[in-house]
């Protein structure tokens, strides 16, 4: 199976670093839904190097600030998720952390979102 993220030339990054890049999800759950991927193909979060993990988390912080500045109304919170392995909902060809802005209305309509850890803007 070909990984759709390995051909980074076909992606339109909204953020990048030497170790990772981020782009808008093609099938967003909410406005600002962003995928963050390491440039090196790895199967799960646990296969990424410590430097790659730190870089991916730095991307989450940077993108959250950018989305707070861009989105109106400002999100009420964020879902940050990492699925490790196909049984956990990860795609079979690699992993991609996500940053997904959320509002109280989205959460109310969806019910509890147990697979994500919400991060509330300061």
Key descriptive features of the protein:
single chain; 122 residues; alpha+beta; HIT family, subunit A; 6-stranded antiparallel β-sheet; globular
Tell me what the structure shows.
By secondary structure, the protein is α+β, with helices and mostly antiparallel strands. It has a single domain (8-119), classed as HIT family, subunit A, CATH 3.30.428. 23% of the residues lie in helices and 22% in strands. The protein has two helices and six strands. The protein has helices at residues 50-70, 104-110; strands spanning 13-16, 20-24, 34-38, 77-81, 98-102, 117-119. Strands 1-2-3-5-4-6 form a six-stranded antiparallel sheet. Strand 1 (13-16) and strand 2 form a beta hairpin. The longest helix is centred in the middle third of the chain and has 21 residues, at 50-70. It is globular, with a radius of gyration of 14 Å. The termini are far apart. Residues 106-122 have low confidence and may be disordered.
């Amino acid at each position: 199976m070909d990984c759709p993220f390995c051909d980074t030339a076909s992606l339109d990054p909204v953020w990048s670093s030497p170790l990772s890049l981020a782009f808008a999800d093609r099938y967003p759950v909410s406005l600002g839904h962003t995928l963050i991927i390491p440039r090196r193909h790895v199967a799960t979060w646990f296969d990424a190097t410590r430097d790659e993990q730190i870089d991916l988390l730095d991307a989450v912080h940077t993108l959250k600030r950018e989305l707070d500045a861009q989105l109106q109304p400002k999100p009420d919170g964020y879902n940050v998720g990492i699925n490790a392995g196909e049984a956990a909902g990860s795609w079979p060809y690699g992993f991609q952390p996500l940053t997904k802005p959320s509002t109280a209305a989205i959460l109310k309509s969806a019910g509890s979102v147990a697979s994500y850890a919400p991060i509330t803007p300061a």
